[in-house]
Amino acid sequence: MTHLKKVVIVGAGDLGINVLKNFIQNYEKEFFVEGLLDDDISKKHTSYYGKPILGTLSELNVLLSEVTIDFIVLAISNIQPNKKQSILKVCADQQVKVKTIPGIKEWIKESNSYKALEDVTPQDLLGRNSVNLLTKELTEQIEGKTVLVTGAGGSIGSEICRQVLLLRPQKLILVGHGENSIHQLLMELNNPIIVPVIADIQDKDELERVFKTYQPAIVYHAAAHKHVPLMEGSLSSAFKNNFLGTKNVADICEESDVEACVMISTDKAVKPANNMGRTKRLAEMYMQYMAKKSACNFSVVRFGNVLGSRGSVVPIFTKQLKEGMPITLTHRDMTRYFMTIPEAASLVLKAGSLAKTGEIYVLDMGEPIKILDLAQNLIRLSGHSLEDVPIIETGIRPGEKLTEELLSEGEIQEKNIVDKIHVGKAIEFDEERLLLLAHIGKKLSESELFHWINELTKISRKKTEVVQS
């Protein structure tokens, strides 16, 4: 029996018993189930299919100290987040792998496949409940209307599309520059109300044609150049896509009598120290400028880091682990705010449903998390020790900060206006100079463009006379 992998199942309810039964029937030559843990006192000293109840969940730490276990299976429906976090921490400290089950209810009803088990990710260690912002008011805003999403093929844009479909729109327009990502999303969603459109937000004539053809009522603007190191060497591209592209979207929304337009921004737009953040801050300013003069409800949503999105650290760390490589991070003291992709998308939808216009919305994401902690937790949960996997510091990349802020001092309200959402106050900026930059920006040299953008995005800057550089 020594060659079999030893397993403990946490949870002796219907789900746990189904998992146990499946192990015994289908995988007895691969795994040996030591027993189960459950907090139901009435199950003490009982057994299921010959496997004993070994104790309560609080005894997991003692059990793992006394018995060599290869991994545990977390099989409790609707487990409380704090209890789940406690179990994951114990297993991480003991360097025991954890498997959980996606789609618990569906798994019970439709499948007994052990293959449905998947590795727990650091998303489970965020230390807070997932925030669900979908409401009846939001359904009423979207139901029966045409919705357009720019950047629909990206991580956030595609999740916005998935959630919009749940709210029964009349038509959903997927706008993207990359045909492969739009095609993949189209195949995934497979819904007759979806219309794919390959278009570049920098092409105003093409955008006007799209808006004229489909006449959207709600627009979610997710298209942007987002990678900080790449944009450090591509200021002109960042400016044209992130700012001028946003200006095109906003201008056409006003011209087309769109009800609401929500732009996705970033915490890097707060006291921006890189080209991506600076150009996104310009875009925020233009949205706030438009909000003053338009009947369209313009608003901005700022994200921290989104777990699982393209280029985020967790998929990079996971790939490095699977390939037996060292984990690389830029600095051991770097921290970031983290949210999940569904949370990010629901915040965007919620912002579009709120009555105020010109606001900046930020999800309450709790405390920032050290990137080093994420890396170490992922190593432990993969069954390795910290001694097995080296962590190498590569140095902060151009434009990166050690810490990020979601709102600057001047934007912070005394209290949350909306539950779980911080609403930032608009900061005054030089509107005339912003509009002039939009007009002449393409003609400026890189150094002149940087000077203009840097001056405009300094929070402490006061309104000045417009002087063309």
UniProtKB/TrEMBL annotation:
Highest taxon of source: Bacteria
Xref: PANTHER family: POLYSACCHARIDE BIOSYNTHESIS PROTEIN EPSC-RELATED (PTHR43318:SF1), UDP-N-ACETYLGLUCOSAMINE 4,6-DEHYDRATASE (PTHR43318)
Family in the record: Belongs to the polysaccharide synthase family.
Organism, scientific name: Brochothrix thermosphacta
Chain coiled-coil ranges: none
The protein's name: Polysaccharide biosynthesis protein
InterPro entries: NAD(P)-bd_dom_sf, Polysac_CapD-like, Polysaccharide_Synthase-Rel
Domain Polysaccharide biosynthesis protein CapD-like: 147-423
UniProt xrefs under Pfam families: Polysacc_synt_2
